[in-house]
Amino acid sequence: MTGGRPPCLPLQAAESSPSRVASRMLSRSVSAMAAKNPKSIRPGPDGSSMPGSGPTSISRLTGRPRGGMDQLSPISDQGPAAYDPSMNAPVILKAAATLTAPALVLRPWCAEDVAALVEVYRDPELRHRTNSRMESEDDGLRWVRAQEQGWAAGDRFAFAVLETALDAAPLRLVGNVVIKEVASGKPSAEVGYWTAAQARGRGVARRALNTLTAWSFDAFQADGLECLELLHQVDNLASCRVAEKNGYQFDRILPSAPPSYPLDGHLHIRRADA
Predict the structure, then answer these.
(1) What are phi and psi of 93, to 5 degrees?
(2) Which one, of 154, 153, 163, 194, lies nearest residue 177 by Cα?
(3) What is the pLDDT of residues 26-55, one digit of tens each?
(4) How far apart are CA 254 and CA 231, in angstroms?
(5) For residue 33, what are the CA distances in angstroms to 65, 181, 230, 265?
(6) Contact yes or no for 236/48 (Cβ under 8 A)
(7) Best mean pLDDT range from 96-105, 166-175, 178-187
(8) What DSSP assignment string belongs to the chain?
């Protein structure tokens, strides 16, 4: 494992081609506990009344959600998309442009994103739906450092979702996607996401989740990953649609746990062989 954090580098190439992870991830006791006790999942305020407006997954252990945009630091495509924990190199992923939407670039969060992150969190809906508070750049920096620590530990991989522009304007931060509770030999992991207010309704969550899903299986299936879980509250119809469009099939309803989690939750599962 590397103790370094993935840097922000200049954007150079277009699309990343996935490859398999080069070394196995270390098991962690917390992940092992979660794998042995799937009933410990609890629904919670997952935060996306609109596609990806907040985190869509909930911790198996705690029941808590895990889970502008003007100028951001430029980034670089390092080639293979799969994460090699023995190297201090960022993973860069890309979702191609569509007829109606520009391309998306996914890369690890870094300190240069803090100002844009704090600006995104001025959105009342996002603030309402998430546990994270971004009142200041200090708050934003702490959050970014936590994401960097996840990469260094090899158990949580969060990506800033950036939108390209046809007029060569700077990339804009439009969302976040994450795979978490990853461990060697553990058959499941969780995914989550949120989308910035000004980017909702353009398929950002769907496309970013699709890109993350493909990379996750390619990077970790050889290490034992068999399925990805996505959770949201029952009133979050938009997240249901995003899940289904990405092949995350409805599995079951998870009971509420008031007062913190007043509504039941949906568990969606995407299997590697789907």
Answers:
(1) -120, 155
(2) 194
(3) 333 333 333 444 333 333 333 333 333 344
(4) 9
(5) 18, 11, 19, 21
(6) yes
(7) 178-187
(8) ---S-PPP-----S--B----SSPPPP-HHHHHHHH-GGG--------SSTTSS---B-TTT--B----S--------SB-S--TTS-----EEE---SSS--EEEEE--GGGHHHHHHHTT-HHHHHH-S---SSHHHHHHHHHHHHHHHHHTSEEEEEEEE--TT-PPPEEEEEEEEES--TT-SEEEEEEEE-GGGTTTTHHHHHHHHHHHHHHHHHGGGT--EEEEEEETT-HHHHHHHHHTT-EEEEEEPPBTTTB-S-EEEEEEETT-
Taking residue 50's Cβ as centre, other Cβ atoms within 10 Å add up to 18
Q: For residue 1, is pLDDT > 60?
A: no
Greater confidence (87 vs 250) lies with 250
Could you count the other beta carbons within 10 Å of the beta carbon of residue 82? Answer: 18
Q: What is the mean pLDDT of the chain?
A: 75
Please give the angle made by the CA atoms of 265, 268 and 274, to the nearest 5 degrees: 175
Rounded distance between C-alpha atoms, residue 52 and residue 148, angstroms: 22
Separation CA 149–CA 21 (nearest Å): 19
In terms of DSSP bridges, do strands 172-180 and 156-163 run parallel, antiparallel, or are they unpaired?
antiparallel
Cα dist. 253→37, 233, 268, 270 in Å? 17, 9, 9, 16
